[in-house]
Design a protein that fits this description.
The protein is an alpha/beta fold. It is 44% helix and 12% strand. The strands form three sheets. A four-stranded mixed sheet has the order 3-1-2-4. Strands 7-6-5-8 form a four-stranded mixed sheet, sandwiched between helices.
Length: 364
Amino acid sequence: MSTMIEMPAGTARERFGAGDPAACWAAVRARCAEADGRFVYAVRTTGIYCRPSCPARQPRRENVRFFASPAAAEAAGFRACKRCHPAGPGRAAREAAVIERACAVIADAETPPALAELAAQVGLSPWHFHRVFKRVTGLTPRAYASACRKARMRDELNREQRVTDAIYQAGFNSNGRFYAATRDALGMTPSAFRQGGAGEQIRFAVGQCSLGAILVAASARGLCAISLGDDPQALVHAFEDAFDRAELIGGDAAFEALVARVVAFVDDPRIGLDLPLDIRGTAFQERVWQALSALPPGTTASYADIAAAIGQPSAVRAVARACAANRLAVAIPCHRVVRADGTLSGYRWGVERKRALLAREAPS
């Protein structure tokens, strides 16, 4: 009969220290990959030390010692396990590096590579590669390739003189496939996109919420802007600049009801927002925003956590820029991103609003 192992309470940034044997032992019993790199455990009867997630048969507690690092364990006379390789990078770091390479291959490919081809390039089986890719990035390889193609499509439509040229430069083999993809990728026709959204209708309204002024806007595809501020007119000016070629229409009674739902959500993010979103960003930004959307209310993550979650652990600054580019306040919860030490960082709509949102989401 299996036994449920309870892990110590804490966030993903909690550090298991060798000076807290109870927390370390709980992590070892749970084979907690999050604890890898934070300590190692050594077994007196075998003379071997392992990382917490080691799949080998677990020892008896009285035979275990904890060390802050592999070097400390080796100085005490223990040797590294040949199964989990505790002196090298942890599984999460190894997987992140593999997926970062795969993401680069997808981004550079003219046409989306086949799953088997991608897996072979990084040395994994197709089934294992697909599972790891989804776990690390939150997307399937196919969905990530689609996001890259969307970004390439936008770039080529802005660069090429003719839509036909953009079709082939973006990697589409036929006009039909291109036009089938553009409505989802752009939210409008290719011609309208090249004209800065000319002809697209966007409804908007300005109101008040508990955090001050709020502007809510929606296209035919869903909410495309939720902005917060002190000055309603400043929100309108910024919105007009962002959608300078679209046809902006003031909200009617039906739209006011939608705005009321958004205001209620901003006042209490824990209730959720069951409305479609019109998300417009680069492939990288969309991956960041999807990772942010996976953070449940009441939890936080660092920029480094998000970078690791999308398979690009070195892209911490780019993650911060993607958070700053978010136009959908609270709906894409960039307010849940904090510094590595847990303190509040900048927020597009003001640090005090960020503090207020986190306080509302905190467990009571």
